[in-house]
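Example record for the data management plan.
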Amino acid sequence: MKYNQKDFYYNKAKKEGFKARAAYKLMQIQQRFKIIKQGDSVLDIACAPGSWLQVIKKLTNGIIVGIDLEKIKPIPRVKFIQADINKIELDQKFNVVVSDIAPKTSGIKKMDQDISYDLSLQALELARKVLIKNGNFVTKNFQGNDTKKLQLEMKKYFKTVKTYTPEATRQGSKEVYLIGLNYYIH
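Corresponding structural encoding:
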C-alpha cells in the first residue's frame, strides 16, 4: 500500500522529536485504556526505532526495557536488549508489556496476516512469562481471519480484551491493536 510519508502524524512526530509517527498510536491507546501507570515497569517488544519507548518514559519512572532484533540508538533510562524474543530469558517481571510487532510486509495480504498473527502470539507468550498479576498487554495485529483467534487466546489470560484502532493509524491500514487488561496467572 502506498502512503504519504509526510502525513499529519509523520510531520507531528518530526516536529515533537519522536522517532516515528507510531508514538501517537501508543499515546491514543494510553488515553483510552490507561494501560501504564506512574511507577510501572514496562517491556516494549519489537521496540525499534524507539518511539514507543519515548512515550513510555513520559508515563512512568519505573524500569523500562526494550527488545528488538534491530539495534536502536540509546535512550536515557531505557535498557535495550538486542535479541529474538523467542530466545530470551528475562528475570524481570513487568506491570505492562507492549508490542508494536509487525512482519516485513511482502504485499501478499494473507501471508502478511498469517505472519502477523504468529508474531502476536509470540509476543503474548513472552508477556505471559513476564507479566505480574493484573498486568496489561498490547499487541499489534494485521486484521484478518486469525484476529478473532488471537482475541480468544488472549481472553484465556486477561479479564478484559479489547480491539482498538488508534486515530493515528494510516488510512486504509489493516492494523489493529489488541488490548489485554488485568492479567490473571494460570
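Summary line stored alongside the record: The mean pLDDT is 93.
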